[in-house]
Amino acid sequence: MTDAHTPSPSATDRAAVERELRAMIAEAARLDAAVVAGLPADTDLFGPEIGLTSLAGVTLLGAVDTRFGVDVAALDLSLDSLQSIATLADFVTAHRSAR
After folding, report:
1. Do 85 and 22 touch, CB atoms closer than 8 A?
2. CA–CA distance, 22 with 32 (Å, rounded to integer)
3. 3-state DSSP of 47-64
4. What are phi and psi for residue 87, nearest 5 degrees?
5. How far apart are CA 35 and CA 48, in angstroms?
6. Measured between alpha carbons, how far is 86 from 72 in angstroms, rounded to an integer?
7. What is the pLDDT of residues 34-78, one digit of tens each?
8. DSSP for 78-96?
9. Facing residues of 44 across strands?
10. 83 Cβ neighbours under 8 A, 6+ residues apart
11. Which residues contact 40 (CB under 8 A, 6 or more apart)?
12. Where along the sequence do coiled-coil regions lie (predicted)?
């Protein structure tokens, strides 16, 4: 039985993925990691706060593939998973657990 205050293993895994993705996003967008870490999860990756460019997006996708083994561009042709920090974290978590 899981304590109501203890996150489930999948929630813990997703939180860890999101933390790593935030650092990767900061690096790709050339932003301070602390700033990206403090943004709400629904922050748009290509919006004004992060301002990811198409080149930075490609860099980010390569880093995600290398780190997590998830080829976002091949699995999500419409790239809807790149809408926000949360959508990318959800996508990566779902696809890496399916491996």
Report:
1. yes
2. 10
3. CCCCCCCHHHHHHHHHHH
4. -65, -35
5. 13
6. 14
7. 999 999 999 999 999 999 999 999 999 999 999 999 999 999 999
8. T-GGGSBHHHHHHHHHHHH
9. 84
10. 44, 45
11. 85
12. none
